[in-house]
Amino acid sequence: MDKDVRNVHGDAAPAAGAPGKVAQGSGVTYKDAPVAEAGFRWIEENSKDLEKLSDEIWGYAELGLHEHKSAKALASYLERHGFIVESGVAGMPTAFVATWGEGRPVVGFLGEYDALPGVSQKPSPVREEVVPGGPGHGCGHNLLGVGAAAGAIALKEEMRARGIKGTVKYFGCPAEENFSGKAFMAREGLFNDLDACLTWHPGPMNVVRGGSSLAVKSMNITFHGIASHAAGAPHLGRSALDAVELMNVGVNYLREHIIEKARIHYVTTNGGLQPNVVPAEARVWYYVRAPHMDQLEEIYQRVLKCAEGASIMTETTYDVQVLEAIYEVLPNRTLEDVLAEAMAVAGPPRFGKEDWEFARKIQETFPPGQIEAVFKDETLTDEIKEKLRGKALCDEVLGRPPVPPESRGSTDVGDVSWCTPTSQFSTACVALGTPGHSWQYTAQVGMGIGHAGMIAAARTLVQAGLRLMTDREVIEKAKEEFRKRTGGKPYKSALPPEVKPAFDQFNKM
């Protein structure tokens, strides 16, 4: 039976026995909102299995496009719970789509499970690598994939309990960190039949992630020269490494003459073999980012001119291999409202005493000023800052800022958001001040702090999913907003048609 959910402003208890508190000023108000009691119950009863699965994927720590064990574990779990799985979609063995139900609405959930190189770490508040120099889940995608799957399965259980018709889809998305699996899936039209799509991401706070992100284009630029003895016959050689270094110098001067919000960064992945041989081949891996795709493309062409100039100066040749090209996130305020409502009902993470102790110890490893930097975030209200001050963990649902924050990062969720109305949120899975892509992040997402945040995310997803399955008006409102933001133009992939997933990229390093 649905419960009446009153104005949620801290003094009103969250519905359905949701734990914890909702920050004052959240601005969320509802009346007669359906509560996902069957879904919440399923998550509670299966929480230990979900934590075990997330730890299993945390232990695999597989890099992008090579998440074979992780994808199999997730796909098998969804199959055991009644979903039909199609594996190897969009030309990627570790990409899959899991489907349950029939008819409309069709609601999608996005899952990720790739790790990052070099951040291997035990679930310990001191630096202890599992594999020296190995990969680790420094962005919490072990939690992301399992939490989204839990939300999808819980929604299935809720729909069965209520006799609701509709289709739930879970998308197993590889390589978010580097090769943007969702962009290849979007190019194949896998998101086109969705009425709405939801996802989440581990973070330091419980908040709906409004605003956009940066579009990004990633490419290898390989220079080809002539090898020779670096001492005996240097005049006969043409150094590909010189070309890489001259290109990098050119790009560094270019930074002064691009828009302020753009970003360019690179690593040299092949600099030759040994100093007494003039390198006949050298390679540099670039990321170019900008708030919008048209801005990105202009800067990208100027970066290529730096490569051209370097090749002329060194009498070398070069080729360009595009690895990824993704759009900025297209916000959907309607779905953000749905998520804010769901988050207030679902409640924040339930942290235990050991979690608080672990968080305080991990904060001791941060450089000076890192925690205080949290409170210099202009998107947080003074009231929220006061509630967070002195805490190691965020244990309240925070209200959305008056002005959505501008992300300096990128995500292939952007391409999904240009295919169908899409929105996302974060739950607290790490201590306040934890740097992303760090060993401290890896440590926390493999223990109780991350587990608590994941369970809270699953609760939010099933609650939001129930709203979408039972309220056709909100679906239509989200679609109308989507049509206005896109101008009614269909999605067109920024990936050139010949570009394939870069399975061998790490073999080139």
TrEMBL record:
Gene3D superfamilies: 3.30.70.360, Zn peptidases. NCBIfam families: amidohydrolases (TIGR01891). It holds the Pfam family Peptidase_M20. GO terms for molecular function: dipeptidase activity; para-aminobenzoyl-glutamate hydrolase activity. InterPro entries: Amidohydrolase, Aminobenzoyl-glu_utiliz_pB, Bact_exopeptidase_dim_dom, Peptidase_M20, Peptidase_M20/M20A_hydrolases, Peptidase_M20_dimer. GO terms for cellular component: cytoplasm. It comes from Candidatus Fermentithermobacillus carboniphilus. SUPFAM superfamilies: Bacterial exopeptidase dimerisation domain (SSF55031), Zn-dependent exopeptidases (SSF53187). Residues 1-25 are annotated as: Disordered. This is Amidohydrolase.
